[in-house]
Each structure stands twice: as C-alpha cells, then as structure tokens.
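Exercise 7.
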Amino acid sequence: MRLWVCIALLSTVLCASAERPGIAQGIRRAGEFVWDAVGGAKDMLRAYLDMREANYIGADKYFHARGNYDAARRGPGGAWAAQVIRWPFLLPHSDAREAFQSRGSGRGAEDSRLDQEANVWGRNGGDPNRYRPQGLPSKY
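Solution. The predicted structure, written as tokens, is:
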C-alpha cells in the first residue's frame, strides 16, 4: 500500500513539475506582450508629439504612418497598441475618431480616409517615408 501511495505522489510531483515550464513560459509571453504594448503606446505618443512640434502642413499622414510602423515593429503587443490606440484624440476605435474628425474639424471624409490608409500602411510594415512631405526637417 505504501509503495502505491509513494508512486502516486511521485507521479503527481513529476506531472506538476513537467507542466510548470509551460505556465512560466505563458507568463513570460504575457509580460512581453504588455511590455511591447506599452512601448508601442510610447511610439505613437512620440509620433503625435513630433507632429505637433513640427507643425508642418501636409505631414500628418507621415506621422500617422510612422507611429503605427514603430509600434507594430515592437511585436504583437506593439501591433495591438497601434490597432487600439488612435491619436490624436485617443478614441478607442479609428472609425469613431475619424467620424468625429470629419464632422468636427472640417477636414473632411477624404482626409480621414487618407489618415486611415497611412495608419494601415505603417501598421503593416510599410515605409512611413512614402508619406513624408518635401521639406520636412530631417529631425523627424
């Protein structure tokens, strides 16, 4: 009887310790995702602040593409942040932000559509310089 109890306990301990690396690896991956998401949010904030600082007519598409590109390059968490965070208004969904802009800012639906195109271009790994206007200082 004692032999069977010892075998059962040993089996339980071995099974539990065999599954532990999977749990630890899952926790590590979750931590990396969160770290990437925070970094992606910082990338998008940096692009937004650079856009405001540059105050350069016609450069908004470039900064949209650059923020999404930098965030998405960080990994799955950064790509998630680029998908979820919408600047400059930080509304949770791009359609809501673009609807607000097209009604409230007077820039129109066509400009909002082009902003979305630049967002998707950058998020999918496209070179943000496609939208870079002539004369934008090299600092950006």
